[in-house]
Write a structure and sequence with these properties.
The protein has 11 helices and 12 strands. It has helices at residues 23-27, 43-53, 67-70, 77-80, 94-104, 123-136, 147-153, 183-194, 198-215, 221-232, 253-265, and strands at 2-3, 6-7, 9-14, 37-38, 41-42, 57-64, 85-89, 111-115, 140-146, 162-164, 167-177, 236-240. It is globular, with a radius of gyration of 18 Å.
Length: 275
């Protein structure tokens, strides 16, 4: 797990299917969203390649209900024989799959969690996030992009923003779990996912003061995450990322078009497809 004095991370790559028919996957004629082609390569393959080739990542574990099916695709088959990549089957709950991976790999700490639709993830963003998370020194760190940074680069693109005192932020689908204490936060989200009234479950966990502070825009994002973490028994902090593309994942057809255009402008990475 060590490269010189730098401790490597274990990457958990979430690539499961949602229950029912995924509308984006159906639009592109595939069963699994992770296999949608972006710039002629399955999303899962593109993200896995970035993780596997990064010097700070010791191993990448793909989490999905049927990972062997995902790796049977011509565009992802290289992953099945790559020693840097493993798989772990899980159910429909993302947080349960992550918790299971943490428990199954007790020597893998620290962990980085990201998703197969995070197709614009690149080595620079990954380096910045890992370095920022380690500097924070908290149990949990969350990658965020500010609306100001994003709007300067993509003024017409739409994102979902969480507004706090001092700014609004969008998630980058990057999470750093530094030590086993972080498992309590993952287990909390597992409980929330299992409840029909998710808003009520969150309200019970965080309490009225924290929710009121957010709704009234009374807290900065650093304070909000710190207080939320404290309610769950962990320390938590944001890592603000400089690259606006870090918060563009592929959830909609519009996102797919934006990501494809951005990747077309980057230096192409040769795909390693069999045959």
């Amino acid at each position: 797990m060590e490269t010189g004095q730098r401790r490597q991370v274990t990457a958990l790559l979430v690539a499961g299917r949602r229950p029912g028919i995924d509308p984006l996957a159906a639009h592109f004629g595939v069963e699994d969203k992770a296999l949608i082609l972006v710039a002629d390569e399955p999303m899962l393959s593109r993200v896995a390649r970035v993780l596997a080739e990064h010097p700070d990542v010791a191993r990448t574990i793909v989490l999905a209900q049927a990972p062997e099916r995902l790796l049977a695709h011509p565009g992802t088959a290289w992953m099945a024989t790559d020693a840097r990549i493993g798989v772990l089957a899980g159910g429909n709950s993302v947080s349960a799959a992550v918790a299971g991976a943490l428990e199954a790999n007790p020597d893998g700490w620290p962990f980085l969690v990201t998703t197969a639709d995070n197709v614009l993830l690149d080595a620079e963003t990954l380096s910045d996030f890992i370095a920022g998370a380690k500097t924070r020194g908290t149990d949990v760190a969350v990658g965020l992009v500010s609306r100001d940074v994003f709007a300067r680069a993509y003024p017409e693109a739409r994102r979902t923003w969480l507004t706090f005192r001092g700014g609004a932020y969008s998630g980058a689908n990057l999470f750093f779990l530094a030590r086993p204490a972080a498992l309590s936060a993952v287990r909390f989200w597992e409980r929330v996912e299992s409840e029909r009234k998710k808003v009520r479950a969150i309200a019970r966990a965080f309490g009225p003061g924290l929710l009121a502070g957010y709704l009234l825009r009374a807290m900065r994002v650093e304070g909000a995450l710190a207080r939320a973490g404290a309610r769950l028994g962990v320390t938590a902090a944001p890592v603000l990322l400089a690259r606006p593309e870090a918060c563009i994942d592929v959830d909609k057809v519009e996102d797919h078009a934006i990501a494809s255009a951005i990747l077309a402008e980057r230096i192409p990475h040769p795909a390693t497809f069999p045959g």
